[in-house]
Amino acid sequence: MRILGVASASAALGLGAASAALACDISEFSAEAKCDGGKGVIVVTDKDASGTPAVVTVFLENNGADAKKVGQHNVKGSAAGTTVTFAEDWQPNAMYRVHVKAGGKLVDKDITPNLSTPATACKAESPSTPATPSKPASPAPSKPSTTAPAPAPSASESSSAPAGTASNAPSPAVGDSNLAETGASSSTGLIAGIAAALVVVGGGAVFFGLRRRGANSGR
User: Fold this and answer.
1) pLDDT band at residue 132 using 50, 70 and 90 as cut-offs
2) In sequence order, what are the beta bridge partners of 102?
3) What is the dihedral sign for C-alpha 54, 58, 61, 65?
4) Any transmembrane segments, and where (predicted)?
């Protein structure tokens, strides 16, 4: 009986030690201020191997008092670590209080010391500059012609028609050529001569007629 009592006591002590080792503890929680895409975030990690559900609450501190409640998340820890992220665009050298409550009254404490943010704020990521499209090669400028231009014709050359070139003026009629040269046709002179001869002949006939008549009268 004594042996059984000792064995039972040893088993109870072992179970108690194992339970204590697996119990959730505030030391298994940690917090860190980081940057995510140019924005600030607060990341809390739970490494409670027992997987005890916990509630994590983050407060912004100002002169030792809560200035505002940043947010609250539920987390179930693991030996590898489970993280929860609070979107908070924190300022440099700011102070945050992180409170953890797990397993009823098993854990109800703040992570100590309070979280202090870095001295440098997060920088916005600069947009990538798009590649400048290559410009098409411009065509080479054409060289001016070295051939001298033909000289313009002079006024005398332009006014006179070149040899062997027919004139654009209409040719005169055959009968008009003599008129242009003498001022009258060739038959006009002949008719004038005949008329003059007839006048002379007529005058002579009249003269002889009157003379003969005078002679007859004298007898």
Assistant:
1) low
2) 54, 107
3) negative
4) 190-210
Cβ atoms of 81 and 45 within 8 Å: the answer is yes
**How far is the C-alpha of 154 from the C-alpha of 145, rounded, in Å?**
25
- 42 phi-psi bin (left φ>0, alpha ψ -120 to 50, beta other): beta
Q: What is the pLDDT of residues 73-82, one digit of tens each?
A: 999 999 999 9
d(CA 207, CA 113): 176
Q: Which residues of 179-213 are buried (b: 16+ CB within 10 A; e: fewer)?
A: eeeeeeeeeeeeeeeeeeeeeeeeeeeeeeeeeee
Residue reference for tokens 């109800």: 108
Alpha-carbon distance 168 to 214, whole Å? 71
Residue 5's H or E segment, with its range, is helix 2-22
Give the whole-angstrom CA distance, residue 210 versus residue 32.
171
Local structure of 201: helix, strand or coil: helix
Note if the pTM is more than 0.85.
no
Examine residue 153 and say whether the peptide bond preceding it is cis (omega within 30 degrees of 0). no
Cross-strand bridge partners of residue 120: none
Residue 86 has which token pair?
Answer: 């609070």
Q: How far apart are CA 161 and CA 71, in angstroms?
A: 108
Residue 117 has pLDDT above 90, yes or no: yes
Residue with tokens 């003599």: 178
